[in-house]
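Escalation from tier 1.

The customer reports that the assembly of two entities below gives different structure tokens on two consecutive runs. Tier 1 could not reproduce it. I'm attaching the input and our single run for tier 2 to review.
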Amino acid sequence: MRIYCYIAIAALVSLLIRVLPLTLIRKQITNPFLRSFLAYVPYVTLAVMTFPAIIHAAQSPVAGVAALIVGAVLAWLGAGLFPVAISCCAAVFLIELLLRLM
Amino acid sequence: MNRDQLRRDILRGARDGLPIALGYFAVAFSLGITAKTAGLTAAQGFIASFLNHASAGEYALFSLIAAGAAFWEVAVVICITNARYLLMSAALSQKISPDTPFFHRPLIGFGITDEIFGLGVARPGWLSPVYLYSAFLVADLFWASGTATGITAGNILPASAVSALSVAIYGMFLAIIIPPARKDKVVLALVLISFAASLAFSVLPVVRELSTGMQTIILTVAISALAALLFPIKGKEGGAAA
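Tier 1 run:
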């Protein structure tokens, strides 16, 4: 029972954090600074979360660097979400396989 | 919205949700192993993951349960680890068409994760709520079942597969941020500066002690605010942002 209380509290707090801004900010923001700020937030936050985390996500940092390079190049060339994601996985799998054989 | 468009958005959402779901399964699987040590059953793990769907927040939750922490401590820690969703929710509020009925707002909010947010901002124009719901449901069901599977069957996936799958999410982030960076020099500079600053935060004394969630918030607010001051976006209103 105590575990369900923990889960309920965590779920409620997470829900409020996610829902409040979306329900409170109902209008298009006209202030140029705030508009620009919110427009830049996605790129910055995703970039910050990607690097250097991608390097440490795999077992070997070398494989992580390979995934970063493969992903960045394919994305630059215009590949979609799924192809890029799968290619990164494949890069890690192959590099780690090679490392084990060496 | 007509039925063809509705069906197209649902299918597209499921398709874009699938790579997220694969990555989620792998991450949630290892999360399940942590949950098991905290004494959660597979059903409890499934429920906790389905409702919270936040990796850092759940790691913290399970460790706190294992430590027998107070309820208020859980509330505070979840606030801190998940605070970045406040920013994402605020950013998404600007992508919702004025014609969208109000009930979609809390529902879209509930579905916010780093990856679903990524999908939402990757598409130009106003958000399609059903597209996001579809992607979120696919991803979250894999997330919740990954956790439950991790709890019941600790070690069925070989370590090499878990390792490979764990970069899927980052590959997806790259696919979201790199194409706009190629088109817009400001975005390209922002991405590179964010990479560098994030690397710096991970090695510099003092700041590296902060949780990754807190680092993400500080860097996001600081870099985005600076960019907004130096390069304000001019242009007409209406879903054009991000």
